[in-house]
Design a protein that fits this description.
single chain; alpha+beta; MetI-like fold; 3-stranded antiparallel β-sheet; 5 strands
Length: about 375
């Protein structure tokens, strides 16, 4: 051939870590990254899940400093402002910028409708105070304090979400209620997750008679109608118990009825994985069943477990909300979102005072947040799912 074909093989030293050497466009940052870093980078690309993580993080951080964030004490009553609608925050007064403030409110009883009617008095201006002294409280019931993020001015009010039938600030009650409703999900799922992994792992790994006994117990529990059973067990809690004991009792009840689905999923996965070569090799090397299950089998379907947990937490929150709404769960003086919604059972109150339905909003946000977070974590941990 007169014109030999030119080849393009480089005679430069071979660098296996270079981007063009691997042919995949991967830099040292990715090639040397740990598994945790890869999961985090994949998770951040899931924008909705990333936003959900931020929202849920703020929600759970708020329950730590509830007393500081709430403008009023949980039990503060303002009998002159019963069923008062949310106050509007203003920035300008007669064209002049004054910063965030509220106008004074005048209320009177309408003798024709027997309802309180409120009107703004634009001659009275009450600036919103920040990092201020307000209602006294006990931080987590232990440390006395009166320091708040925002407070009303002296002689003024600051009901950003209105008040209820006793004149209590709805915004403060929502913050305090989140402490109960959000922790019910975490504690309940922690217990049900432990039971699901324990019994599902035993059934899937050992099989035989152990599997048959556990499966029959699961079938019995799943055959019972959950809502009537929840109602019966919650109603069986003695009324003489303290509110905090009833809170933990309800959490345990919810957890004892929520582990069966996870146990079934864990069993089915272990039945398939226990026959794999790496599991048989671990058995031949003398590894104990507990180590094989926890170190070799469970990590192989961790994405499924993560998704199950993030879906179970909102289920727990909804269950507590439903029971409290029906009057069979938590009761006053405990404040939760379900207890607050129980006050909205009267259709007349809902029609006249719609702001008492506001506890539905955080319930919806938290439930959606956990669903989006679960999707993002599943895709990040198992990119082939």
């Amino acid at each position: 051939m007169d014109n030999p074909v030119t080849h393009y093989v480089s005679d430069a030293p071979f660098d296996p870590m270079a981007d063009d050497a691997t042919g995949s466009g991967l830099s040292d940052k990715y090639l040397n990254a740990s598994q945790g870093q890869l999961i985090w980078w994949r998770f951040k690309r899931h924008r909705v899940a990333y936003i959900a993580l931020f929202v849920l993080g703020l929600s759970y951080f708020s329950i730590i400093v509830t007393e500081f964030l709430a403008p009023y004490n949980l039990h503060s009553r303002h009998t002159d402002y019963i069923f008062m609608p949310p106050q509007q925050v203003h920035l300008f007064h007669e064209g002049s910028f004054l910063g965030p403030f509220v106008y004074g409110v005048d209320g009177e009883l309408n003798l024709d409708t027997l309802l309180r009617e409120y009107s703004e008095d634009t001659d009275r201006i009450y600036p919103i105070r920040y990092f201020c002294s307000g209602d006294a409280y006990k931080f987590w019931g232990l440390i006395k304090g009166d320091f708040h993020l925002i407070c009303p001015s002296e002689g003024g009010t600051l009901f950003l979400l209105g008040t209820d039938k006793l004149g209590r600030d709805m915004a403060s009650r929502l913050l305090y209620g989140g402490r109960i409703s959000l922790t019910v999900g975490i504690i309940g799922v922690g217990l049900s997750f432990f039971l699901g992994l324990l019994f599902g792992g035993l059934a899937g790994y050992f099989g035989g008679r152990t599997d048959n006994i556990i499966q029959r117990v699961i079938e019995i529990l799943q055959s019972l109608p959950h809502l009537p059973l929840w109602m019966a067990l919650a109603a069986a809690l003695p009324v003489i118990w303290s509110p905090i004991v009833i809170y933990f009792g309800l959490t345990i009840i919810l957890a004892l009825l929520a582990w069966t689905g996870l146990a079934r999923a864990v069993r089915s996965k272990l039945l398939a994985l226990r026959e794999e070569d790496f599991c048989v090799a671990a058995q031949l090397m003398g590894a104990k069943p507990g180590r094989i299950i926890s170190y070799h089998l469970l990590p192989n379907f961790m994405s499924h477990l993560i998704a199950s947990v993030t879906l179970a937490i909102p289920s727990m929150i909804l269950a507590e909300t439903a029971l409290s709404f029906l009057g069979l769960g938590l009761k006053a003086p405990i404040t939760s979102w379900g207890v607050m919604l129980a006050e909205a059972q009267n259709i007349e109150a809902v029609a006249l005072f719609p702001w008492i339905m506001l506890p539905m909003l955080p319930v919806v946000i938290v439930v959606l947040g956990f669903n989006f977070l679960g999707d993002g974590l599943r895709d990040a941990i198992d990119p082939h799912s």
